[in-house]
Write a structure and sequence with these properties.
2 copies of one chain form a homodimer. Chain A folds into 2 domains: about 200 residues, Medium-chain alcohol dehydrogenases, catalytic domain (Quinone Oxidoreductase, Chain A, domain 1, Alpha-Beta Complex), CATH 3.90.180; about 140 residues, NAD(P)-binding Rossmann-like Domain (Rossmann fold), CATH 3.40.50.720. Helix content of chain A is about 30%, strand content about 25%. In chain A, strands 3, 5, 6, 9, 10, 17 and 18 form a 7-stranded mixed sheet that branches. In chain A, strand 15, helix 10 and strand 16 form a beta-alpha-beta unit. In chain A, helix 6 packs parallel to helix 7 and helix 8 runs parallel beside helix 9. At the A-B interface, helix 10 and strand 16 of A face helix 10 and strand 16 of B.
Amino acid sequence: MRATVMYGAGDVRVEDVPDPRVQEPTDAVVRVLRAGICGSDLWPYQSMPASEQGRRMGHEFLGVVEDLGAEVSGLNRGDLVVTPFVWADNTCDFCAEGLQTSCRHGGRYGFDDVDGGQGEAVRVPQAKGTLVRLPVGEDSALLASLLTLSDVFCTGHHCAVTAGVSPRTSVTVIGDGAVGLSAVLAAKRLGAEQILLMGRHTQRTDLGRRFGATDVIAERGEEGVQRVRALTGGDGTHRVLECVGTKQALQTAFGVARDGGVVSRVGVPQYDEGPIGFDMVMRNPTLTGGAAPARAYIEELLPDVLDGTIEPGRVFDRAVNLAGVPDGYRAMTDREALKVLIRA
Amino acid sequence: MRATVMYGAGDVRVEDVPDPRVQEPTDAVVRVLRAGICGSDLWPYQSMPASEQGRRMGHEFLGVVEDLGAEVSGLNRGDLVVTPFVWADNTCDFCAEGLQTSCRHGGRYGFDDVDGGQGEAVRVPQAKGTLVRLPVGEDSALLASLLTLSDVFCTGHHCAVTAGVSPRTSVTVIGDGAVGLSAVLAAKRLGAEQILLMGRHTQRTDLGRRFGATDVIAERGEEGVQRVRALTGGDGTHRVLECVGTKQALQTAFGVARDGGVVSRVGVPQYDEGPIGFDMVMRNPTLTGGAAPARAYIEELLPDVLDGTIEPGRVFDRAVNLAGVPDGYRAMTDREALKVLIRA
């Protein structure tokens, strides 16, 4: 089959790889219908050292079950399914707590002989625990929004949930990328009435307003902090959703957090150490967030997608076929595209 | 009156200062009966640049109301009272949320023409909101334990509360200083059944065991992390109470935290940046804590002290009079004394 392999920074190729097949009785093989390029895919695209072996890419996808191991109950060939971006047994103690990202028998796509999602098909380990059936057909207009349950919308939701967003909290969202916009939508869905979006790309912040942002702050750094404070009586917001991943963004996050507030971060940190020293202690902020256990959220969010209450798939503003994936990486890196949908 | 003034690292003097008097109608003057030397007093003792003016010291004290401003209701001359280590109006929105450390009209002892607690008397601003009456006499045997409500036990309690310690959580406490031991006692009081205390001073960890520690880990750094993991089936504990304040202690805290767990820190951070980068993201830890709003906890904890259920005053293992305060600083710095009680 054809699949996406990254050989180093800027070097993404679509090439022939072995067809996936059931190897363990807990596996399924899924033919990919839709996949996404994730903001986190861009970090290796910008920095990965050259590699002869390459690295299989993609962890956001939905598709059709083609084959099943003997121990996979609850699924049938032909089912349309979405995967969370990490696979998990969904039965261990961590999974039971809703932390499937720490599953004792889980793992990541594209590693350890497991396919990536940016290809024609994927062997999915722990298929019973991992895959969630979608009650739609292959031609559904909802596929783009359903695909966001694989990662980006669940990541925004995780950010809002771990931050404790509620109707009683004001919220700042830092970042107008697909995750930041998803966080806006999630905060709105959880009832937040004041949602300040920090971002400077008008097309993106316009979508942010459609998703529920009440104010847009284009200023960055200390200027941005002062702007948020001006909009919140000097105090900052109760909750801050940090969806960028740079140290500057985290610094801004603490700067706009109300005393006793919560900063949740879901961007992949591009730093080893962060600004959490003495200055923060009197103000009692909490820092939380991390990789989203998407599997914990899919069933809860699915009805709102199916009935059109939310349209998280609007973050996709470009679609490519498999051959177009390398150009999709380029377009997202150049900020030509917000997020790229792959029609496999 | 006599009071403690620090003129630089290692230079603590007890000398004559102006007698406090009511300046604002919201003030009270409190004659100090008992005061404490705090671990946080030792940081300037080790690093304060020489100063001609000096700095008034002390923020943990209890005593007797000597005088009251016209607007202070609910208190009478002769009342025995304890103060939280920051004063607060206890009516603003932050106070109403239990975050008196961020009070809109609050402040710190020893700054802005407010006395420190390590002296004969203190002008207490916002006395009505700040001071809590204690139903005991000046000769009560409970004074040492009641004094811990001013800071150290409330700080340990804040650490445990913000971490979310409960009967269902395992706990690691990092640090066998007075705050760490208080955190052990607080965790035990909140129902934790497994409490691992990381510390290497046997006298102190023995008190930790009396306070409720189930295991003591003397190893530090990576070795200490491995030891905690060995005691917890490889997983680490749900809650980690970081009561030291160094970067190494914070690193250890993240190392011993179970995935999805909470690290709360109440030691004064001796670092500007901390290890919160990529490695942590897949594990979803939360970092919380900060300066304890002791005022929010005093009424809740007071009954357990009064009826002897808990004896947090056991952290005081040396008593001095005012003249002995400089030697008290030295003794704590040299780790001769765990915590010094001042009989003013």
